[in-house]
Amino acid sequence: AYEHGPYQPHEPGYGLYQPGYSPYDDQIPDPKSRMLAIQNAKAYLLKSSTTSGLNLYDHLANTLTKILDEQPTNAVDIIENISKDVKWAQFQKKMDTLRDEHEILPTFEAAEKRKALFLKTNGEEELEEEIEETPLPNVMETAFYFEQAGIGLSKDESYHIFLALKKLVSVQPIQTCRFWGKILGLDMNYIIAEVQYHEGEKEEEREEEVIEEGEKGMAEVEDEDEEKEKEDEPPKSIYKPQPVIPKEENGTGANKYVYFVCNEPGKPWVKLPPVTPAQIVCARKIKKFFTGRLDAPVVSFPPFPGNEANYLRAQIARISAGTQISPIGFYQLAEVERDDEEEQGGGGDTYEENPDFQPLSVAEMVDSLSTWVHHRQSILKQGRCVWLNPFQNSEEEEENEEEEKVEDLDELQQEIGPPILTPLSEDEGIQNIPAWTAQLSTNLIPQYAVAILQSNLWPGAYAFASGMKFDNIYFGWGHKYSPESHAPALPPPVQAEYPSGPEITETRDPTLEEELAFKAASEEALDAAEEEEEEEDVEDDEEEEDD
């Protein structure tokens, strides 16, 4: 390497290393001033940082000590890394620092949440010894069949849902349980379980009773206030709102099944409330994405009567009514329902498995949609599966009200939907799009293929059939297909002004002359009335004298 010799007098560096020479000698000639400058510089280097608490003087000293102790090659190239190592070594173990603290990865957090799914309780160990029938569905078997067509979740998630359903069955008095599907949300998703309670178990409806009692108490207070203010009461409106259509009883119609939801396997299951006809009717008019929070408000027009939990329940009822299908002949109507079918004017909602069912081939299941049937009741425009006359309880009302309701009854027409176990070939499509698409899971090995049906009205709804086994599932956003972009309903038109006429037209103020003339005329009328009274009194007196 080239080494520079002694500097010559004409070179810029000449004299720098001569004793008693400094480039600042001309600026600080006084030794006292030089010492003061050195002290100020050292004080500046000893100034601690407001963020880390370190000072540059100690840091440089420690850095040089580390370099001299280790003597690394090419120290000038790695001095930045050495400086970082020195800084990291200065940190001490404290409660509020992250030194030697491993970062918690999302996979580790998810594993901690699902750890409870893999733990066994004492009751579960006893049940394993006694092999009995369980309402727990075989989620992994269903996932295997749907996987043949590329439908479903990952194996890990399917197994976690399997374990979550096992926890649900062990806690709730459930007779039947089924993995309904997964509805996607903007923040979180919903994993949905469809269950039926045992016949002896009834759902709690205490909340509705408490609300009714509170309304009665408020009504009594309002009646007392109305009695006090009857004299100053303004005119009452003659408008009568439409009667509220009651919800179907638990275990029937749209409320035949109970639904539990959770955002992730391992989180607690939450039971959804029963659905009402008003919620179903309004859900058909709006289209909202789910957020993943059951208590989130549903801001829409027309206003939805409830929060996201009610909207989710309404969409589940609509999807189930339109996409729950089975091979023809697998189910048959119950004997009790066959007798009541003619009386109700439509099919019942109770069905049972056909012991004489003979499965069709996969090719036949794909070739014709008439080999599949709906085994759920369809929902009418009223929002119920069985039509209800809202004016049927009007015997105790007044005659006038009864006459008005008779006119309304003439306008109302009883709705009758398609009976249960109706073939899919009768479903109406949208424009030129059929309601269903049937296909084999694979064309390469058709002898081992599975029949797959996909709903075009509700994207995300699928069904499979293979021999005696079939199932339905849903993976989607919970929206019905629409060929046109969704347009919210417009508000009603502005109400017209009340027609003006002589009865409501304000009269003009009379002039002074008119007031004086009116006063004079009224005085004359009073005088004439007094004279007539006097004449009548005189005639009465004369008649008494004659008698």
UniProtKB/TrEMBL annotation:
Secretion signal, residue range per the UniProt entry: none
Organism the protein comes from: Corythaixoides concolor
Composition-biased stretches (Acidic residues): 220-232, 524-547
Alphabetical UniProt keywords: Cell projection, Cilium, Cytoplasm, Cytoskeleton
This protein's encoding gene: Rsph4a
Main location: cytoplasm
Subcellular localization: Cytoplasm, Cytoskeleton, Cilium axoneme
A cellular component annotation (GO) from this entry: radial spoke
Region (Disordered): 199-248, 486-547
Oxidoreductase found in the keyword field: no
Protein's name in the database: RSH4A protein
Pfam families from the UniProt entry: Radial_spoke (PF04712)
One of the GO biological process terms: cilium movement involved in cell motility
